Amino acid sequence: xxxxxxxxxxxxxxxxxxxxxxxxxxxxxxxxxxxxxxxxxxxxxxxxxxxxxxxxxxxxxxxxxxxxxxxxxxxxxxxxxxxxxxxxxxxxxxxxxxxxxxxxxxxxxxxxxxxxxxxxxxxxxxxxxxxxxxxxxxxxxxxxxxxxxxxxxxxxxxxxxxxxxxxxxxxxxxxxxxxxxxxxxxxxxxxxxxxxxxxxxxxxxxxxxxxxxxxxxxxxxxxxxxxxxxxxxxxxxxxxxxxxxxxxxxxxxxxxxxxxxxxxxxxxxxxxxxxxxxxxxxxxxxxxxxxxxxxxxxxxxxxxxxxxxxxxxxxxxxxxxxxxxxxxxxxxxxxxx
Length: 337
What we know:
The chain is mainly alpha-helical and 337 residues long. It has helices at 3-14, 42-51, 54-58, 77-94, 99-108, 117-128, 134-149, 156-163, 174-197, 208-214, 218-236, 243-261, 270-286, 296-302, 304-313, 317-328. It is 61% helix and 0% strand. The longest helix has 24 residues, at 174-197.
């Protein structure tokens, strides 16, 4: 028995019968021959594929909530991704579900996010004349765009978990459903931290009825939500929260939309970011020859709009600003002699 086969065997011995087992995966878009000495299960391989991708590395320079904040301690899309992964793995470990599948979904769920967070998503929706959804773009990144158009060829369960982390589609696996809920738990709580750091909120601003249920600080809220999900899901055989905690989380999310996500102080620069991305989109539509060389072949089979959208969606905040500056801001004349 190989190391991989031993790991797969151990999954069946220790995991919940409702877990997604690696040796029962529905497979990859393109079959891959398994090396006889391969020591990783299919989901472990997917974790490594994602971590070593260019799209994953770019997450460290993409906005979470606050656009290009001054300070080292604000969340980025990368730190958000790591927090989601840790919350989700804590939950699935307690439920005896598949941690490797959970980690792969969590690490890949936001690979398609635009520069400047949801402002970029909104800008590209306006440019395309139809909704741009970062979860669908994340799937496109792993299926098509990575590795110079080859994609990462991930397992079905990972791919469906990524596209189902938000939006109408609910992942088939319990692991995917845990990541979906962990994403909500993570961003609501860490965005409170960042809003307090930015002076937009104080801890006393959170409504008392929410505090009484979830707790008075970041650690207490996370502990309440994670422990409640574990205990309730164990009894229900499905991923869920108790009605009281579910309502408190929904109320907290509504509070955050009112006080932070739509706050003109927090979002004061978003209109500039959206205009900047719109101008970049218009420029590359008019000048497709200016697209990088590795995007040129895509023009012939995906068309102008889709290719330009993919290019802009993959930009980091800094790269978008740099390209805008390069194209639209006059540079000083350097005279030598």
